[in-house]
Amino acid sequence: MKLSVEFPSVSYREGPGAVAGLARAIERIGYDHIDIFDHVVMGVPIEGRPRGPYNAAMPILEALMALSYIAAVTTRVTLGTEVLVLPQRQPALVAKQVSTLDTLSGGRVRLGVGVGWQESEYEALGEPFRTRGARMDEAIRLLRAYWTDAEVSVASAHYPTVSMAMEPKPPQGARLPIWIGGLSEAAFRRVGRLGDGWLASRVTDAAGARAAIEAIHRHAEAAGRDPGAIGLQSMVAPPPRDAAGKTFYADHDAVVARVAALKAMGFGWVALNATAIFQAGARSVDAMTEQLATLHDRLRAEVG
Fold first, then answer.
1. Are 258 and 237 within 8 A, CB to CB?
2. Could you tell me which of 42, 99, 237, 278 has the fewest CB atoms within 10 Å of its CB?
3. For residues 175 and 159, what is the distance between their CA atoms, to the nearest angstrom?
């Protein structure tokens, strides 16, 4: 399997050197990929605003800036977002940022995108929340156009573009993978029609995974695409929301069993959440590194 680490923003508390050191350690241990979580701002719970799944004070480094820093101190590990909330960002700017990151990292970028859930964040960034699905589809097409075409003209309801150029192109060009997150039928349709892979975060059972993968494949076939070419990644465990979730990664037998189960469901990639490893008791960069090394070696030996 391909093994990814969702990078812990909390590492910044030990200084920039600790962030760089953890990234280098993840690469040295042998992980294939580093993902970065994305939120620009978090809504504080107030009257009339539903409480979100995360503490509003949780530290979150800006995803593309953090990946640029990590790219400068690594050479092999691939780099991505899990997931960038694309419709709350201007897509031409994202195309430029990702193209630049791919150029300076030597073609190591995989862009993960999603529509997000936090209406207050959209409001703070000046983007409409209700049209995020339609704008997501248009934005994905615009990204690919900027990464491929010498002159970009796109008829779009939200991002009309007439005779524009963007250089440099990313080394991967149109092959720069765009993986899409989400658990809705709309997300499955988007993966099947537009995505290079699916980023799952809350797979709980084999039947649910099978239904989701079948839906993605069905939409891919309807779009004339090869379903077998669409990659599949799942978070090993979702972000913890209770005491049991916060101790999951301390039980390495449970982690290995979970990864083996995800492999049996058809996932070729899994992501270990290093922030959850921190919450499970590894309260420093050195401790997280030790846990990641132990888990990596067991997973390679027992799962493949």
1. yes
2. 42
3. 22
DSSP 8-state class, residue 247: H
**Residue type for 60, please?**
I
Note whether 109 and 78 are within 8 A (CB).
yes
What are the φ and ψ backbone dihedral angles of 81, each rounded to 5 degrees? -115, 145
Q: How does pLDDT run across 170-215, given as a tens digit for each residue?
A: 999 999 999 999 999 999 999 999 999 999 998 989 999 999 999 9
Residue 263: CB atoms within 10 Å:
17
Residues 6 or more apart whose Cβ sits within 8 Å of residue 55: 42
Phi/psi for 141 (5° steps) reads -65, -40
Tokens (6 digits) for 70: 């990590």
Question: Model-level pTM greater than 0.85?
Answer: yes
The CA-atom distances, in angstroms, between 100 and each of 44, 67, 96 are: 33, 11, 6
Instruction: In whole angstroms, give the CA distance from residue 89 to residue 143.
Output: 12
Q: Tell me the C-alpha distance between 234 and 200, whole Å.
A: 4
Which pLDDT score is estimated for 50? Answer: 87
* DSSP one-letter string for 149-173: -SSEEE--SSS-EEEE---SPPTTG
- In the chain, the amino acid numbered 61 is L
| Cα-only R_g, the chain | 19
